[in-house]
Amino acid sequence: MNIIPKKPADVDAEHDADENKNANLAKEDGNESIETNDISVACYFWTAPSAILKEKISFRGLLESDGHRFKKSGKGHKCLCPFHDERTASFYICPNDNYGKCYGCGWKGSILDYVMERDQVDFNAALKILTQFYEHGTAVNRIVSSQKPSLPGEVYVPSESQRTVMADAAIRLMDDERLQHRVADPRSWKTSTILKLAQEGCLGWDGALAFIYSTGIKFRNWPKKDFFWGFGHQSLWRINKLETASSVYLTEGETDAISMIDAGFENTPGVAVICMPGASSFQDAWAPLFRGKTVTLCLDNDPAGEAATGKVAELLHPYATRLLTFNPREVA
Ligand SMILES: [Zn+2]
Q: Can you give the residue range of the structural domain that contains 262?
């Protein structure tokens, strides 16, 4: 899309002119609820495709959950436009919260148009994503899709239908409290930890416990130990946590990572717990992802774990700012 954004002063002037025009027309009509510019008309007459979307999902709430910060402006609110680069806000959400318009690039539309544009999906997919957002406060499909493998070299990118399997597994675990107990209880984890991981889109249930990677899905016949890959290739579990973390705990299995998350290791801002799929599975190409981070290796206290600690430390040494080890040892 070729966008030539307008100047901030012009944006505000245009929006103010819209509001004034509405106010005058309302006076002439003697009817304050009728407004006639396109954004306001859409506010009043746009009909949502389902009652859930119309009444339950706040357009502004969705944008806020996407990281946009709003300021009050006239009768509505404005934020930086999600669809063009700008320093001064020109994206307005109308007063009754179901229609947005950018006075900079000209984008306008409903919450569904927004999701279609944001995720580059069709109407039905957007509807599904919004329904998930309503039911879970998050859109698992989108999280699973956004866990794009950022590993250098050749990576496996799951197909659209595989991503659906991944998202559905997370949703199944999210929706079923008994399943959350079935996962949590054998390890005395909190069900809230399991729910959080499912909401993140990295843990699910599909006949077995599902560890959802950006590059595929790995099953475990829980609480037994046998693993099998449903599809895809191994990478780092919760790889998307790496981007924003300054301190990373790296375990050698998903369950160790879950135990540390359950114990509150991630309650400190900037800390992430991620895992490599096994002691000897760390690949050279993953090391640069740890550039500039404090990395604490939490591998098993056995000969295989010790050997892996040495190998991984050597690979990470050129990149990590600090390398530490942490070996929880069972004492009873
Ligand atoms: Zn814009």
A: 239-325
